User: What shape does this take?
Amino acid sequence: MQEDSPVQNENTPDTTVEQPGRARRRNRLIVVGAAALVALGLGGVAVATSGPDRPAPTAVSLDAQSRAEAASRADRSARESSAPASPSASPTVSPSTASASPTPTRTATAKPKPKPKKTTRPTAAWVDPMPGASVTSCYGQRWGTLHAGIDLALPSGTPIHAAAAGTVTQAGDAADGYGNSVFIDHGNGYLTHYAHQSRIAVTVGQKVKAGQVIGYEGATGDATGPHLHFEVHQGMWNQIDPAPYMRAHGVNLGC
Assistant: This one.
């Protein structure tokens, strides 16, 4: 007995054939999707574009892209770090510092210099009666008579000084050609005699010091010109050579 087979209409869809095909396509899509996911996880993805004017799909490596982005960031950070820093604002002075008044500087007070002590030279016991004078005649014989003193010449009016301290015993004309004369007793047994003065500056009994002015040079009495006739007496009118006596007292009269 022959079984009747179903009659298949041409317009009736063949579900028997289409269902396995759809299953196969579905399985294929699942496999392709899984493969795409695996490829994406391993570092690559296929980018596809459609259309006649667009280029063919190009595969881009995600690992290469990551490295490029990292390099770009590194390059950008290098440029940013090398950029010149903007000038900082000028420093401002703290109000407390600016308003503070400067501390006055103490200046050292100069100590007054001590005044030098005045030192007075002790007056020599004996001095030159007319310093700087020229010697025109010494003690000794002259024209057959004794020249009993030393003649000292300077211009007329030159001051005459006491040879040593003492007391004036005579002041005036002494006669015997001496003219205006002064005698000083030095209290040691010796006297000094100053003759031919133009003017006398002391009086009898006056105390004088060594170097004190007692008169002025002249030419009174027997004199050929202005000069001082200086004598030393050991006792009154006992004339001795003045040169060695004065040298013994530290004065050189040039004879």
Observations:
- The first helix runs from residue 15 to 42.
